[in-house]
Amino acid sequence: MKDGAGGEERYLLLSRALMASGKYPEALKEITKALTEESQSVRLRWQARDVFLANGQSTKAGQMVDETLRKVSSDPSTFRDAPNLVVFGRAALAKNADPKRVLDQLFGTALKADPKSREVYLASGELALDKHDFALAAKKFGEGLKQLPDDPELNYGLARAYAPGDQALMLASVEAALKVNSNHVGCLLLLAEHNIDAEEYSDAKEVLDRIELVNPWHPDAWAYRAVIAHLGNYEAEEEQARLKGLKYWSTNPRVDHLIGLKLSQKYRFAEGSDHQRQALKFDPDYLPAKAQLGQDLLRLGEEAEGWELAEDVQKEDGYDVEAYNVSNLHQTMAKFTTLTNRDFLVRMGRHEAAVYGGRVLDLLSQARSNLCAKYDFDIKRPTIVEIFPEQKDFAVRTFGMPGNPGYLGVCFGNVVTANSPAQRGHSVNWEAVLWHEFCHCVTLQKTHNKMPRWLSEGISVYEEAQANPSWGQRMSPSYREMTLGDELTPISKLSGAFLAPESDEHLQFAYYESSLVVEFLIQSYGMDSLKAILRDLGEGDEINDTIAKHSAPMEKLEKDFAVFARERAEKLAPMLDFEKPEFEKTRAAERQRARRGQPSDHNLTAGADWDAWAKEHPTNFWVMSRQAEQLVEDKQWAEAKNVLTRLVDAFPGYVGADGGYAMLAATHRALGETNAERDVLTRWAEKDDEATDAYLRLMEMESSATNWPAVLLNGNRFLAVNPLITPPYRFVAQASERVGDSAGAIAGYRSWLELDPPDPAEVHFNLARLLHKAGDAGAKRHLLQALEDAPRSREALKLLLEMSGAAPQTKTELQ
Predict the structure, then answer these.
(1) What number is the average pLDDT over the span 280-287?
(2) Contact assessment for residue 444 and residue 411, using Cβ atoms and an 8 Å cutoff
(3) Which of 136, 396, 692, 786 could in theory staple to 764 by disulfide, Cβ–Cβ 3.0 to 4.6 A?
(4) Could you give the 3-state DSSP secondary structure of residue 620?
(5) CATH of domain 575-594+610-688
(6) What are the tens digits of pLDDT across the range 120-154?
């Protein structure tokens, strides 16, 4: 500055340095001077906009936008270089210009003028982020990094693009940026946010302390401190942090918006919505707050205002991807069927509601009766449950954007969203899913949503298994290996295991371990202790203190639990050996590296001699599974039967693909051993909540044996996995009638009819017959529909005469 060289660049650098270090008044003084000395610069005007906003001078900030647009428009040829075109585009966006035109015409022209201009890539990526188009944002920042490798600002942008969908990639981009600039505040904020999400609040505070050394007045940093204080129930500290965030701009809507956003991500939707309303008081046009408030209200079940806000955001910003998706979803859900009883409001697609909606209400009512009594909590208002035939609609309703295919259901407290069994790529027990999610309703509402994720998930998975032994999760060979290895997560860090798991299996292990912790707590300290923990959490007590009060200090608890978990793992199928050969461990590691796209120095097809190793380990689980698969493939049934029988008997609780039940049943069938096949299938069906092949085969076998209770049992098991195909309804209807359950038979025939059976006349007739016995006037309509398809049916004509009160006719008269 003293040399007087550098033109506008010196002022830009100085201003950015002062802003980055939180010296907002000094930045204001310098930018005011710069505008006088470099009066033609539009780049300084755009920088001045940020400075004025940071100092709470919104009117002057708006003037800078207007002046920028006027200057460029009055003399466009002067501002054709890339940096000025970018500023012009940013200013145009601030005045609601068409984003696509800005991206293509202004930013595109700037890129052609200078392919290495970082400002172009930053502006393009930030535009995409503002519109919630994270894929486009990642593309733009990635293109910039090809031109400017290791640029910290571009890596920061890429991290923001990855943050909503891939925490691992986000963290990798943050790490890349911090290697170049360890004081990059944006990246440090992402780290702090990640730690908050993982409930690692002390780590988050350490990161925020690092930020404070760089910028003691960063509004986002103080907003995060306010969030941490709120979650710890420190009201005075929370308000102090919030006020510090508003020190230089007392009506900055972002501070309350960010506090509310993080609270809502912690399922504190009521508190979160209050902050969004405060943000809108500061700036009624602040769309991020309006959009988040709409989402909060929808998750609270306050739907009229929630949908209205969502529609308003979409009208005001037609290019926002999230707003567009939510608006379309509203139109889709308007066509849903609503089923209600005293305690639930269930929304489903019309067809699915007609087929199995009654089953949904019955299951939810059973869950409510069981779990509310067990946890001493009465839910006062009806619970809203929404089941989506399309996964993308579920994702938009749940997360605001398509994606997140791994989720089966989500509970917000009083609102549950779930994927329909119609669109899943694999069998999933929807009854277990809804039981799990309703358990969340109980525990979240009991604690006012003030519980750590691991405890919430752990209780729900635990309660699945309590409701039905085939539900939930259990120790498996891979879980055994992870437990006895170094992959057991300390309880105090267990919530973080859900954030960026190494694989899908690691995510599922986090659910399993959480449920095991809950089982350990109940077994060691009793159910009353767990309920007391939930009660105190609801009053705002800190989790570790609460656990210590009602069980043991966290340090002791973690040690005792580790012993408990390892004992459980070591006692798994004690007659079997679970050792893996070293060559197989190497191949498994290399396969995992290959799945991640990492280079490998090993030939994945190479390996030691399995047969030689197997001779030394005859009771090894992996050896026996491998032998059985090969024998079944070669149709050596007698030999396969011997191995599989030993495997299943030694490990009866395992129902994985390599567990043996399916192969053993197929082996017995091939050998013509019907009774043995039935026995194996029955054992399998008792333990596996997704074994549709076993259920269907048992229905066929038990129907032939007229064992109608068994037919009914397996029919209902099948429908808990897939309620949208016809065979189980035929079996359920027939079995229900045979055991004297006319209502169950009628329900089965009605559902069967909704699925377009190949012989609708038969179904209509059976419905007419049962309804007539029950004195239901609807019987005649079904009978007439049966006769419409089969007008010569003697049984139907006879029933019609009976309904009409006519005298019975002879066979000749009927002819």
Answers:
(1) 96
(2) yes
(3) 786
(4) strand
(5) 1.25.40
(6) 999 999 999 999 999 999 999 999 999 999 999 99
Could you please report the per-residue DSSP string of 544-604? Answer: HHHHHHHT--HHHHHHHHHHHHHHHHHTSSTTSB----HHHHHHHHHHHHHHTT---SS-T
Is residue 14 classed as helix, strand or coil in its secondary structure? helix
pLDDT band at 605; cut points 50, 70, 90: very low
How far is it, in rounded angstroms, from Cα 146 to Cα 710? 64
Using CA atoms, how far residue 456 sits from 90, 408, 412, in Å, is 44, 16, 12
**pTM here?**
0.89
Residue boundaries of the structural domains of the chain: 335-446, 448-572, 575-594+610-688
Distance CA 540, CA 242 (A): 20
The whole-number average pLDDT for the span 542-569 is 95
Same fold, 335-446 and 575-594+610-688: no
pLDDT tier at 604 (50, 70, 90 boundaries)?
very low
Beta strand 409-411 pairing with 415-419: antiparallel
Reference 536, options 463, 456, 451; nearest CA is 451
pLDDT tens, residue by residue, 1-11: 888 777 889 99
CA distance 178 to 742: 69
Q: Annotate 765-804 with DSSP letters as a single string.
A: HHHHHHHHHTT-TTHHHHHHHHHHH-TT-HHHHHHHHHHH
- Please name which of 720, 745, 812 lies closest in space to residue 359, comparing C-alpha atoms: 720
Q: What is the DSSP letter of 102?
A: I
What CATH number labels 335-446? 3.40.30.160
Environment class of 73 (CB within 10 Å of its CB; exposed 0-12, middle 13-18, buried 19+): exposed
CA pair distance 709, 735, nearest whole angstrom? 7
Residue 387, SS3 per DSSP: strand
The tokens for 609 are 């001699």
